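We modelled the chain as a single entity of 361 amino acids. Its sequence is:
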Amino acid sequence: MIIGILGGGQLARMMALAGYPLGLRFRVLDPAPDACTGHLAEHIQAEFDDPAALRKLARGCDVVTYEFENVPAGALEQLEGTVPLYPPPAALRYSQDRLREKELFGRLDIPTPNHKPVDSRDGLEAAVAEVGLPGVLKTRRLGYDGKGQTVLRKNADLDPAWEQLGAHALIYEALIPFERELSIIAVRGRNGKSAYYPVPENSHCNGILRESRVCPGDPMQQPAEEYAQRLLDELNYVGVLTLELFQLNGQLLANEFAPRVHNSGHWSIEGAETSQFENHLRALMGLPLGKTTPLGHIAMVNFIGHLPGTAEVLACAGTHFHGYGKPERAGRKVGHGTIRASTVEKLQTELERLKKLAMPE
């Protein structure tokens, strides 16, 4: 079987690595000449919405998927009806517009931070008056890893924020003083059966995920699963979906969802019985889903901008190294390390070592 992927970054790369033991082959469409999945799969170098390239991608493929939200929705429209396409395009359309996404959450009774759409400078002032300060002004579209957003803490911040983002359709949201950031990684097969990974607790810096720690038995697992299940059923979803959440006063608020495999689930490659990448592929092909049981105490650390030495990382007990084959660049995810330990104490010791390697002074 051949799997086509829109996008050739590290998520597609990890899909390919998970799929080869299943006897799968891969073809990716990505405009970058050095797309890191090109090391592992046939690489069609073209714009995502190039009609000829999309036809070439789909030709002979058994199913097509995508690895990130910024794929043009028009590309999926060109593919619809020509090849099985999962997750469903409707999920991508919702995730690409933060206002439509929040409206979807509202219809499904999934709580969110207070928010208002913003279409003008006066509209920003009205939104701030209603939602309050502090808050976050975000572009409705094309935000990723903290891009396209700015925090407003006082009225004097409105003008600079408008100058920065006012050319776009916007949404203003309350800034949540959360106790924890969590995510629930769910997978749903073609037959409608779903499975869930234990929620990881996530830490971000400048909008980019830095660290995820798995929390088996977390009290927020059940409500997180319930919210994710509502999304899966509403969208008639197939594949992996991740719902990002804030915990505040023992309750969960939905931040956003990603219709794809997710950075906060990278720990599952070594830390779960079946990784999120393999389960995504199983779902696409209509195969039985694998168990999501964690294999001990697990943490994952992103390598951002700087890739530490392989030997240094592997010297941390129970640690696995992943390099993405990407040149180092400030703010760029170039790899990650996953630690698996038998006790919380052992995990914490090696985690501190790994974090020092990942974020040198």
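As a brief sanity check on the tokenised model: The radius of gyration is 20 Å. The chain is about 30% helix and 30% strand.
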